[in-house]
Amino acid sequence: MAKDQGLRRPATVQDVANLAEVSKATAARALGQYGAVSARVMTKVTAAAAALGYLPNDLARTMTTGRSGTIGVIVGDIENPYFGLAVRGVSDGAKARGFNVVLVNSGEDVAEEKAALEVLVRKQIDGFIIAPAASGDTAHLLNIATIGRPVVLMDREIPALGFDAVVLDDKAAAKRATELLIAAGHTRLSYITAAGMKQHTLCDATGIGLSTVANRIAGFSEALADAGIPDPHRYIRFGVTDRQGAQHVIADLLNLSDRPTAILASDSLIALAILRTTKDVRLIIPRDISLISFHDADWTSATTPSVTVVAQPAYDLGREVVSMLIERIEGLAEPPRRRELPTRLIERESVSAPK
Amino acid sequence: MAKDQGLRRPATVQDVANLAEVSKATAARALGQYGAVSARVMTKVTAAAAALGYLPNDLARTMTTGRSGTIGVIVGDIENPYFGLAVRGVSDGAKARGFNVVLVNSGEDVAEEKAALEVLVRKQIDGFIIAPAASGDTAHLLNIATIGRPVVLMDREIPALGFDAVVLDDKAAAKRATELLIAAGHTRLSYITAAGMKQHTLCDATGIGLSTVANRIAGFSEALADAGIPDPHRYIRFGVTDRQGAQHVIADLLNLSDRPTAILASDSLIALAILRTTKDVRLIIPRDISLISFHDADWTSATTPSVTVVAQPAYDLGREVVSMLIERIEGLAEPPRRRELPTRLIERESVSAPK
DNA sequence: TTGAAAGCGCTAACAG
DNA sequence: CTGTTAGCGCTTTCAA
């Protein structure tokens, strides 16, 4: 008996219409708040819907309207607090305007990014927010635009594609941070970055895969050049993505006979690896080595020493990017827009003069 | 001219069929790998699909099959590294079996949880993984089961609902950690937990909203009782959800004239708040106060002192929970199953004897 | 203001 | 093995 209610087929517009004794079209108009309905019908239909526990089938709605009210977000690593915060900005912004968000991780891998994109297209997503894994190999991104779905780039830009983009002032940020280190007296400075290339080794500025990486290296190098410090690329390390690799690269760096006396880390995960490694090899921050990290992660203010950081407006980045996207979805036709958000240097305890 | 390709209507099965000169049904069979097709037709259709850049419309497919190949995950706070890791386990497991995941944050709020659930039901999600925000107020969860969509509970269980659940051995874990503290000589022990109730104040064990919280408090209290320490609830604090609140509660606790000499933190975010607050009031860990935290967050091994933690198999939790769910989706009809995963105490540097 | 009918893109059931 | 037909639940003409 109780089982009668146990498994019932979900109610449809037709069911509601029957119970309310109106036509399907009328019931649909009342439920979907479009067209025009008399007050009498409105209440009857609403009551019927409530009685049946009616919930609209969004897929059917999307099938006919062509709009899913959903936007797709693809980032490299949601567990990176920087992206985590940005995604929260996106979610909040989307929710505020009645859109849903579906989030996919690309693992900073172009093939996975491509697969993710395909899944989302097949789900008839209205538009995309992407932090692209690489700036070469972008055919899939162009395709997406071809089928009429807007794309906004987040954090990393690819000017050639002509998409809207919201980025940070990475070059200026890197330069400012580097100058702080130089002002403290350092001349052997290292920049360690997660993404950008497969190789950990140094390279000339050509072939850098990500605008953020290229920009920061430009800022870093410029600061060194301005200070007359030679061979700026000497202590730059790329592609430090996994935890293992990070420890290894950092340990190698610290074992150099003329090891760097200051490090700039591209994100809080790298900074963490540096903390761990210095602890392992019994180097004290900032006495033996100074540290500045990109991203004001939660823990950076709680450690001893607390760490000097480049604070990034990640949440605002997300808000901004989603509002740009929604404007496009709603038909905005202007030429591509680009917005650059400022970062801020927060000085704490991890920088001092070299010994 | 170039614009001709600029915006083209996405290709449908019908388009592919026309180009391949077969019927719509045949094209669909070839594309969807079901039914049976001759090799000749198969190649023709495949070629046509490639030529047109055909991508199936998953919504249409779901409409007719009733299966979306997507599972919904609802957690309180994806930025909590514990849940972040669990969700990654879920994603990996789902991907491996050909399912997609859509993730929604509930902000540990029942109303939001309810709204999220509704959105997902409307999208015809195949099944749900939920870390419920509270164990009262569960009508919406029951409803979901009523319409025939399986639910598996993650991390927190609600036995009354009869759902599958995967949880950790919270009680044993709390007891073990507490015993370590007691063995070190502590008698004034505090437990600080994020979720559970609105009030920060102490309470009797009745009306605790979450199984995890109740279980841990049981383990904590039991250890104190076993050691003959009176008034075990004295230093327990609930509902420390936001950063502000955390600082405040902790500061109050540390300002007590007979303040606790050891704290057990319910997650890494609380532990962080403790680190920050002790730093503020110039208390040294572990000299002035010992600390153990639930969750082996990344940073806990990199700080000075590194922090002793209850390591939780969050990733495995996610894997396990998703595999249970998929079995249900694929028709498993057995009675509800419950699985408890073991945690592990990792001793590091944040515990010592009281002064 | 309301109703009837067509159609979104796909798969399922049934013939041939 | 292939084609025809019907229908998923909804919105959208078009008439009434």
Strand content of chain A: 5-15%
Structural class of chain A: alpha/beta
Number of helical segments of chain A? 13
Fold-level CATH name of the largest domain in chain A: Rossmann fold
Which blocks of ≥5 consecutive residues of chain A have pLDDT under 50? 1-5, 200-205
Total strands of chain A: 12
Please name the two chains that share the biggest interface, counting residues whose Cβ lies under 8 Å from a Cβ on the partner chain.
A-B, 49 and 49 residues
Query: What is the residue-mean pLDDT of chain A, rounded to a whole number?
Result: 92
From N to C, what is the helix and strand string of chain A?
Answer: HHHHHEHEHEHEEHEHEHEHEEHEE
The radius of gyration of chain A is 26 Å
Note down, in words, how this protein is organized.
The structure is a homodimer of 355-residue chains. Chain A has 13 helices and twelve strands. The first copy, chain A, has 355 residues and is of the alpha/beta class. Chain A has three domains: 13-65, Orthogonal Bundle (434 Repressor (Amino-terminal Domain)), CATH 1.10.260.40; 70-167 and 314-341, Response regulator (Rossmann fold), CATH 3.40.50; 170-312, Response regulator (Rossmann fold, 3-Layer(aba) Sandwich), CATH 3.40.50.2300. In chain A, the strands form two sheets. In chain A, strands 2-1-3-4-5-11 form a six-stranded parallel β-sheet, sandwiched between helices. Chain A is elongated and about 85 Å long. Chains A and B meet through helix 5, helix 6, strand 2, helix 7 and helix 12 of A and helix 5, helix 6, strand 2, helix 7 and helix 12 of B. The structure holds a DNA duplex (16 and 16 nucleotides).
